[in-house]
Design brief:
It comes from Rhodocollybia butyracea. Keywords: FAD, Flavoprotein, Oxidoreductase, Signal. InterPro entries: FAD-bd_PCMH, FAD-bd_PCMH-like_sf, FAD-bd_PCMH_sub2, FAD-linked_Oxidoreductase, Oxid_FAD_bind_N. Belongs to the oxygen-dependent FAD-linked oxidoreductase family. The chain has two domains: about 160 residues, Uridine Diphospho-n-acetylenolpyruvylglucosamine Reductase, domain 3; about 220 residues, Vanillyl-alcohol Oxidase, Chain A, domain 3. About 30% of the residues lie in helices and about 20% in strands. The chain has 14 helices and 15 strands. α1 packs antiparallel against α4. The longest helix has 18 residues. The chain is globular and about 65 Å long.
Amino acid sequence: MKIYILIQILLSATLSFAQDQNATRACFSIESLLGPIKVQSSGPQFEAGATGAWNLANAQLRPACIVFPLETSDVQVAMKAIFQSNARYAVQAGGHSAMEGWNNLQGGVLILFSQMNNISESYNQETDTISVEPGLTRGNKCNGAFCSVETGLLLGGGISFLSPAHGFGADNIKSLDVVLVDGTLVVATVDDEYADLFRALKGGGNRYGIYPNSSVDAVINATAHYVQTVEGPSAVLLVSLVNAIVSEEITPIAQVELFYNVTDTNLTTLPSSIFGELLSIPASTSNITRLSYLEVLNTIPAGNNSGSGETFGAEVFSSAEDIQMYHDARAHWDNFTQAVAGTGAYFFTSLISTPIPSSQIEAGRARGGNAIDAPLGGYVALNLGEQLTLGVAQPPAEADEAKLLFLNQLHRSPGFPFFMNECDKRQNVYETYGEKKKLLTCY
């Protein structure tokens, strides 16, 4: 799979007059080479691009100019000018990131791939590949499933409903067209001269039921048992615990999504050996039916509204951990929710569990592996997410301190990686990667 990306150098977020001048110089240079349609500092398209990030915190940042490349050469021109001007820059594809400053910036150059959203129309059977451009989002191909999610999903690792059988999304990348910071275009693959870069970029940057609060403990127990025992590639589990906040009142909800990929068209029930404990929990709403993969994607509501701020945090438990760790995490999460409910800044908090079985790691290794380099044994990736109320971009200072305390109270399993795309900006993601030392040598 070909993906156009940029190597993004993380520079200081502190603005200065010199930096603003550098950005102005870069914008003028790029516009003189690419023209005012591809490079804009005002107007409707600029405003839509500057405010289009999924996270309101990023949508409020205002770049000096936005580059709308239509082809690879446009990216090369922009990067060379940015490099020569020593200007700060950011890159945005679909814009689905909760990390502040990750896909937009104040006063610098924003490269926005909204116009490069094509996908090859034909599947190449000989190479088992398709080619996609960086601005392609799920929204281009489906109606739901967080439609602003895009190719950054793959570069950050990528967890999907196919992962247990085929590994992380990054494991399925065959080649990357990479524009380096000096404007040079290279193709990175597993066995060419940019193999170290290719490796680093691979991860380096429903069945449906809603359960009442009385069954949350049972859901946690069943989730832990699933992580400890299920290893096959056909089963997928996603468990979302949500604390909805309305007028300081907290309403807990548990949403469990079970998937089982089979070719037996006569199968009408889910295997009890895998899902029996979860299915035995009384559900206020449930639905078991046969779905196509596209229908599975569309069972998840669209999440591309950018009218409020989002914050994330990550944790990980290995399959060998005691169930009590799951209950401790839930207790700390409940305490955090209670601490911030009175601020009026939160719509909900969530604690989402995604099991990563050994079959997923093995499938990835069979495709050459990735920079995450997760160990075998199985684990669960925890996403600690919060959505702020409409119009609120940043949590209050006391709520942010409560979030940091919450993260520090959790106990992670050493040797297992965080999921980059769902981390807090204060968490050291690369420190948890198996190939941290190799990443440090790739620059």
